[in-house]
C-alpha cells in the first residue's frame, strides 16, 4: 500500500508534468495556472538566461539545490503518510463502518475524534462499497468545543457539495438560524452551504438529518 501511496501522492504528478500529460480530460483552458508545484519550483532553479555566469560549476550548484529541494519534499511526504495519513485512514474507516449507528440513512458520519477525513472518504467509500454515499460529516471543533456539520464534496478536487445545507439556512447565524431551521443551538451556516455549526452534538445531528429531508 505504501508504495502505491508514494506513487499517487508524489511521483505521479511529477511524472505527468514531465511528460506533458494534462491533469483533466478536456480541451478547455484552465481557469487558473498553478506555478507553485514541485516541478515549477525545481524549474525555477535553472540558470537564468540573464545570468552572465553560465558555467558548468554554476549549473551543478543549481542541480544540487534542486536535488535538496526534491529530496526534502519527498521525505516530508513519507513522514506525513506514515505518521498522519495512515492513522487517519484507520479512524475514518471505523467511522464509516459505524455510520448506521448515527443515522439509519447511512448518509451521516460522525468522527470519534477530529482527523483529516477528506483525504480518505472517497477512496474508502469505493473500497467499502458505500451506498448511498455519505452526505454529511459531524465532528467536534476542538477550539470552541462546539459541533460542526460539513457537507461532503462531490469529488476530492471539487468545491461543490453532494448535498449542501439548505439554501434557506445559508448566511444565517444564531437565533435567526435556529428559528428558521427549527433546531436550537444553531451557530451558523456558510453562505455556500458546505458547512455549519451548532452548540451541541444533538443539534448538529438534527441539522444534518433535517438537511437530508429538504
UniProtKB/TrEMBL annotation:
Protein name, as recorded: Metal-dependent protein hydrolase
Phylogenetic classification of the source organism: Eukaryota, Viridiplantae, Streptophyta, Embryophyta, Tracheophyta
Family, as annotated: Belongs to the MYG1 family.
Tree of life domain: Eukaryota
Any one Gene Ontology cellular component term annotated for this protein: nucleus
